[in-house]
Amino acid sequence: MISRKQERCIALKIAYDGTGFHGFQRQPRLRTIQGTLEETLKNLGGIHVPVQGAGRTDAGVHARGQVIAFPVTEWPVPAGRTAIALNGALPPEISVLAAAEAPLGFHPRFDALHKTYQYTVFRRAARCPLRRLYALHERAPLNLCLMREAAADLTGEHDFSAFQNTGRPVDSAIRVIKAVLIEEEDLFLHFWITANGFLYQMVRIIVGTLLEIGRGRLDAAVVREALETGRRGLLGPTAPAHGLCLERVTYKERIFVE
Amino acid sequence: MISRKQERCIALKIAYDGTGFHGFQRQPRLRTIQGTLEETLKNLGGIHVPVQGAGRTDAGVHARGQVIAFPVTEWPVPAGRTAIALNGALPPEISVLAAAEAPLGFHPRFDALHKTYQYTVFRRAARCPLRRLYALHERAPLNLCLMREAAADLTGEHDFSAFQNTGRPVDSAIRVIKAVLIEEEDLFLHFWITANGFLYQMVRIIVGTLLEIGRGRLDAAVVREALETGRRGLLGPTAPAHGLCLERVTYKERIFVE
Predict the structure, then answer these.
(1) How many CB pairs under 8 A join A and B?
(2) Could you tell me if A62 lies within 8 Å of chain B, comparing CB atoms?
(3) Nearest CA to CA, how far is B166 from chain A (Å)?
(4) Does some domain include residue A258?
(5) Is B56 an interface residue toward A (CB < 8 Å)?
(6) What ipTM score was computed for the predicted complex, to two decimals?
(7) Domain of B15: which CATH number?
(8) For B79-135, what is each residue's pLDDT tens digit?
(9) Measured between CB atoms, does B15 come within 8 Å of chain A?
(10) Residue A255 falls within a domain, yes or no?
């Protein structure tokens, strides 16, 4: 039994197709993931509920394992039933995968130990219309060996000042990358990047740089040089948003029973 | 060298996302695959070129291996360069995968030995937003054993009168199904169906019926009974279009060098 006045926190694991959204973060008059979740919760419960997310994904970026949380006081509905109600009311681009009662004060971003993003590249001369919204199309042959060499330089604790775009200033650019894996699967190339935090567009700059190295247009040594000098200009372009997907968020204690 | 007046036939293997189209076949004032191809060819070459396809896919049905062909007389461009020009001019939902000069009089549908369709089902309690346009979402547990038993009854030469919807009358409903394979891949179920020809919505009726059998709502014996009696009413509903994809068309002689 959940009493009406008790303060609680509900955490949800969600997936979404970011194609039709202006990113995660609420923005006036624009369709965003956070805005859509808050609106839907308001329609269901009658009151505004502020939603926090683990990753502030950009416009066009997808998620298969985003974690969100919101405090509730006037909401006498268990987390599991909240998920079912939400799934019935959300647009088809957003789906709740799991729900849990989280400790009071739980914050999906600040409490995360690390996050894993996947970036997908489709490698063939001809475009694939069925994956065009979820994978970057790449025609050029790629030297995976050089790309993996450069990727290895990224792992560990570094000042990633060079690996951010302007637009979201931070106090410190020091982050720990746990792993950068480059996986081949038929015509696809998957970049799996896990870190304790990401700077603004950091994954897309990493992928854009590794692709330039693979194409032979940048030297693999630019990664080390950029880590040392902090110069964004040494690196490749920011890879397009639609290849990127937030896959997993890990916490000290398991939040969801699956 | 291709002379200006020589009559030729160009065959193309194409892929498309059928989501935003009213099916393959040209229809006045509606966006269709055939209509879009003919318009694009007209924009490129200045004259109307009638396009034939191997499969007249319904609205919302996709293709990864549709074959189309068109005769050309005033088109002094080799097939390979036609493909490149088309890929530059077609909308992102359609892509040319391969091109070839075909024998004069080649017809992609009448000359096909058999066609293979794939139908994809996504099995999990929660919807998958990233596959929602390309896979049917199915929550119920499915008895694959019973489904495979019923699928086996479909193979071979039969009168498939029961396995068609009204709307595209045919002289004979006798077809040969070469194989119905049900393949599991993580959370996906793939139906692979190969036949020398398909009646109107035949694949979707087969899948809709096999799913009803898997859910325990229809007896596996209905397949045999429907083949014997020709009664559509014995079978399950027509499965939704968006799970279906035309994968391959096979000819006596290989058309495309890949």
Answers:
(1) 56
(2) yes
(3) 29
(4) no
(5) no
(6) 0.88
(7) 3.30.70.580
(8) 899 999 999 999 999 999 999 999 998 999 999 999 999 999 999 999 999 999 999
(9) yes
(10) no
